[in-house]
Structures are given as structure tokens and as C-alpha cells.
Specification:
A: alpha/beta; Rossmann fold; nine-stranded mixed beta sheet; B: 86 residues; alpha+beta; Mth169, Chain: A
């Protein structure tokens, strides 16, 4: 019998996109559960979502305290075993703080919190997170600390290994000053992705775009192909 | 014993906050200020005497992000009572 897929969405104190993530994945017919950050058990889940928000009030650095929440060690172990992990916005910040993805996310160049739709280029459609994506997507961003930074060595490694999955479509669309217009990256083994834009906020026509659906659909496709 | 841990962005990392503060300083007439880097500091008190080197570890692991920040640690000599009360 086929294993039923269940997605986990982790809630940290200060997460505020966790319920949107649960609803977005549920809208695609997938059983999705909210998991409190003190939990340490992820065995029954087929994929883990670290949602957006302001975990621990962004104290110290965005994601820096959440990285020491009990569940993050389980997420690291889960990722090490090949489980699919996606970090969205604050979730991405937590993934870089935890060392599951390289680089850092710094204050936007403008020092402003930016909340709007941006155009993105999907650089790779051969990943478990993007196989159903179009080359050009329109997704909302909402962050004050989204300027992706990596030093020259790390950046070269990312560029050479195909680690960059999403870029802002132009310098104008890059409203945080991210190096090389980077909006989303994936790890070497292809099972951990982080992105600043919010796919969960664009899964119904009511919100202006349904391009976000394709990311969750890609994950579901990847899981079903694996079975 | 108390220590001051000072965190600063690395030289090669753009610091928009520092630049905005520099602009404000210039518009207040402090034209002699050449640059400002914005960081943060932590006043840390150690139980039972001096730091054994573990402050370095926590500064590296938690207080700073070594990818983009540097830190320095200063031991604070206890100030005379009078000054402290101010």
C-alpha cells in the first residue's frame, strides 16, 4: 500500500505564516499538521516546512535563537537522512543559521521592510521543489532581513554547483540587495531548499497569483515518484 | 567578572545601518567622521571569577555569526562604587 504523505509545518514562538502553510498544502489535498518547536519527533512526516514569521522576535539575528529550538536538531537529522525540508522567509533564515544552507540573510539594503509581489526566475526545474514550476514566477515577499550574502568562495561554489534555484528577475525586482539577485538556494543533496518569497501566500486566485502552488506540487510529485 | 562582547559587521559586508547613521552625523555637522559601522554589544557576567575561554565559544556559536560578523571581548575592570552608582 502507498504510504500516505503527511507534511509537517513547524511553529516557533513568533511564527506567523505557519497556518498559511498548513492551509496551502491542505488545499492540494495533502494531510498537513502543525508541529510545536519543542517537539523532537519528525519520523512520520514526508516533508517539513519551516514557515515565515519572526521567531523569537528576530532577537539577536533573524533565526539565531530558533536555531537552538529542540526541533531544529531533529530537522538537521531529518535532512541528513534525505527528508525534504523547505524554509520560507524566516524558515530560510533558520536554515542558514543552523548551517543546513550556506550564507547569511542580512538587513535589506534599504533598511525597509518590503512587502510586495516580485518577479522571480526559476533557474532549475529539476529539483524536488521546482519540477512543476514555470521559468518565471510572481510571488510575494515580506521581509526586512532578506539580503542574501555569501563570501566569494561560497558564492562561486553555489553558482558552479547549481545551488541557486530562484533569482529576482532583475536588479529592480531585487529589493533587498541580495548578492547575484539570489532569492532561493538548495543544498548539494537537493533535499533542503530555502527561499525568501512566500509560495504559501499565492495558492489561490484571491491573492493575485497561484504560482506558489507549483512549489508544493513539486514536493508532492517528488514524494509520489519516490514511492 | 564582567565582560563586554562587541560584535561588528566584517569589513567586506555592507552595513546600510552604519551608512545611514553616518549620513545623519554629517547632516548634524560632524563632517570629520569618516565612517561608522553599526554593531551590537553584550554585557556578560561570569559566575565564580574569570572567563576560562568559554566566552569565546559562545560569542562564536551564538552571539555572532562568524560568516558576516567579527567579535572582540573586553574584560571590564570593576569601577569604583561612586562611579557605578551614577
Amino acid at each position: 500500500m502507498k504510504k500516505k504523505n503527511i507534511f509537517a509545518v513547524v511553529t516557533f514562538p513568533g511564527s506567523n505564516c505557519d497556518r498559511d502553510c498548513v492551509k496551502a498544502v491542505q488545499s492540494l489535498g495533502i494531510n498537513t499538521e502543525s508541529v510545536w518547536h519543542r517537539s523532537t519527533s519528525l519520523e512520520k512526516y514526508s516533508a517539513v516546512i519551516l514557515p515565515g514569521g519572526f521567531s523569537y522576535g528576530d532577537y539577536l539575528r533573524a533565526g539565531a535563537i530558533a536555531r537552538f529550538s529542540p526541533i531544529v536538531n531533529s530537522v538537521i537529522e531529518y535532512a541528513r537522512k534525505g527528508g525534504l525540508v523547505i524554509g520560507i522567509c524566516n524558515g530560510f533564515q533558520i536554515l542558514v543559521e543552523a548551517g543546513l544552507l550556506p550564507g547569511a540573510l542580512l538587513k535589506n539594503n534599504s533598511l525597509k521592510f518590503v512587502c510586495k509581489y516580485v518577479k522571480l526566475i526559476c533557474e532549475r526545474t529539476n529539483t524536488s521543489f521546482t519540477s512543476a514550476c514555470k521559468r518565471e514566477l510572481s510571488l510575494p515577499i515580506a521581509h526586512g532581513q532578506g539580503r542574501y550574502y555569501a563570501d566569494n568562495n561560497e558564492l562561486k561554489k553555489l553558482e558552479d554547483s547549481g545551488g541557486i534555484v530562484f533569482r529576482y528577475a532583475s536588479d529592480n525586482e531585487n529589493c533587498n540587495g541580495s548578492i547575484n539577485n539570489i532569492a532561493g538556494i538548495i543544498n548539494d543533496t537537493g533535499n533542503v531548499m530555502g527561499m525568501m518569497p512566500h509560495p504559501e501566500r499565492s495558492v489561490t486566485y484571491l491573492s493575485g497569483s497561484i504560482d506558489g502552488r507549483s512549489i508544493f506540487e513539486s514536493m508532492i510529485n517528488a514524494l509520489e515518484t519516490k514511492q | 567578572m564582567k565582560y563586554l562582547v562587541i560584535i561588528l559587521p566584517k569589513d567586506e559586508v555592507l552595513d546600510p545601518q552604519g551608512e545611514v547613521i553616518l549620513d545623519a552625523a554629517h547632516s548634524l555637522g560632524f563632517k570629520e567622521i569618516a565612517s561608522i559601522r553599526a554593531g551590537k554589544s553584550f554585557l556578560v557576567e561570569i559566575n565564580n571569577g574569570e572567563d576560562s575561554g568559554r566566552l569565546n565559544e559562545i560569542a562564536n556559536k551564538l552571539l555572532s555569526n562568524p560568516l558576516v560578523e567579527t567579535f572582540s571581548i573586553q574584560a571590564l575592570t570593576p569601577l569604583p562604587e561612586k562611579v557605578r552608582n551614577n
